[in-house]
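Need tokens for this chain, all 313 residues.
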Amino acid sequence: MSELLHKVRAVCARFRRSHPAAARLSALQRNFGLPTHRLICDVPTRWNSILHILERLCEQQQAIVEFQLQHTRVSRTAEQHHFTTNDWASMRDLCALLRCFEYSTNMASGDDTVISITIPLLCLLEKLLRAMMEEEVAQEEEEDEGSFLALSGQSVRSGSEGGFLQQQRPGTNVASQGPLLEDEEDEEEVEEDENEAGSQRGGTRHSSGRSLVRGWGETEDDDNTPLTEDSLSLLLGSLAHMSDYMLQFLHSDSRVAHILTCADYWVATLLDPRYKDNVPTLLPALERDRKMREYKCTLVDALLRAFPNVTGE
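Here are the structure tokens for all 313 residues:
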């Protein structure tokens, strides 16, 4: 991913610095009927800006591919930062992964956000990452099974009982989990100097998979987190591998661990009518009863301190 993100930043910076290249891209956008949006650069101080730059590239894929093909024919040399088919596939997978984090960021950063949404958001984020990983693994297994049966002269019955199609969980598409905010036009109006400076800084600051989400992997505890045997068996660079990689850091991040062990977050969730009935399902099965008793006692103690003059049970 570090090589892909380096290439992405280089391509976007070129179109923003070069007026002829930007003009040619704009003409191609009109020819293909695409939105005449400028490419954007990611800025370290803007959360989820890597997602926005990738979404804009995918939106303009047809125009960018044609531009690179024309440039190759004119210069008779291969484009230094030419996007391959695998690059475009990886960008789309990475967008699917990072949309989960943008959705969580937007939910947690709203003007009317309350503390009770924190625990449900973390559980949703984990569920989405795990669903994407399991869905792709199931698809890969289905393709492998189909290839094996085809080689052995047998036919594959789609959706047959016990087949891999039946094992895929319904509703695991990230796009169906809730409204995802669209890329706002004012992102394009960031000063070009700041964008380019941010792009240069981001080239080193976000050079690893750990820093795809800002601030992750910056603690000493996360630096040496090993990949599990199951992770190594996944195809490197695939959506399943990236999801599993981010899931590991979600579990090992010290700030997330503090939230999950702090009673205040759970008590706040218990007080929220939207989530109070679902709190037990968010807890580990072996600790569910004990934790619920603990959080209810914490809630009662807080109420007694808040209303000391109230008498009776």
